[in-house]
Amino acid sequence: MAFPLYFFGFPATVKNVIDRLFILLESPQIIGNCGTTCHPIRFDRHPKTVLISSCGFPEIEHFDIVRRHFKKICDEAGWPLAGEILISAAGAVDVPGLFDKKLNFIKEAGSAFMQSDIGRDIQEEISKPVISDRDYREMVTAALKGGITGRIKSTVIGTKAIIKSKME
Ligand SMILES: Cc1cc2nc3c(=O)[nH]c(=O)nc-3n(C[C@H](O)[C@H](O)[C@H](O)COP(=O)(O)O)c2cc1C
Q1: Domain count of the chain?
Q2: Does residue 5 line the site of ligand 1, with CB under 6 A?
Q3: Which of 25, 57, 111, 129 has the fewest CB atoms nearer than 10 Å to its CB?
Q4: Do 158 and 76 fall into the same domain?
């Protein structure tokens, strides 16, 4: 499932799709493996899933709630969760080259997903920051402010991040 993070969770359109998956469950209420009430699973199909999301704030912690929510849905539906691709600071995606390393790891994650699960090491590489939180906040704020000063400031911060990433 792939979506941009909205208000710390699923966008309404995505949630609408999730709600329709209720058909995958039977209506009786039973005690599940975790000791709380749940519905039995209707079909004997257990497709593996991957959580893919981007967010506009720089910290990865903004995904905490949706990660828990998605895992709960997977547990209830009997879907094995094969990994997470979480990209914070999505406002920096237009800075040339800054996401190149991340994109390569995302391709690796795609291959890993086809074979089995996405390893924790690949997930961590994907989630690594490409710019400091402070620079990112200032860059996005300047870009949103616009005008010649805003554009110059955001370009300067972006260029600084590109140079830093090339030196790593
Ligand atoms: C209605 C709305 C709510 C948002 N809520 C959050 C949020 O809670 N946390 C966050 O980091 N970014 C939030 N964002 C930013 C989006 O997650 C970000 O723009 C998106 O991941 C970028 O992907 P896109 O280019 O496909 O829109 C929000 C954006 C919108 C429009």
Answers
A1: 2
A2: yes
A3: 111
A4: no
Asked whether 4 lines ligand 1 (CB < 6 A), one says yes
Does residue 141's CB lie within 6 angstroms of at least one atom of ligand 1?
A: no
Pick the closest to residue 100 from 153, 43, 165, 147 (CA basis): 165
* Predicted confidence pLDDT, tens digits, the chain (168 residues): 999 999 999 999 999 999 999 999 999 999 988 889 999 999 888 889 999 999 999 999 999 999 999 999 999 999 999 999 999 999 999 999 999 999 999 999 999 999 999 999 999 999 999 999 999 999 999 999 999 999 999 999 999 999 998 888
Would the CA dihedral through 131, 132, 135, 141 be positive or negative? positive
* Closest Cα to atom 3 of ligand 1: 6
Q: How far is Cα 23 from Cα 41, in angstroms, rounded to an integer?
A: 9
- 168 & 109 share domain: no
Residues in the chain: 168
Q: Are residues 145 and 124 in the same domain?
A: no
What is the span of the domain harbouring residue 168? 131-168
19 and 49 in a single domain? The answer is: yes
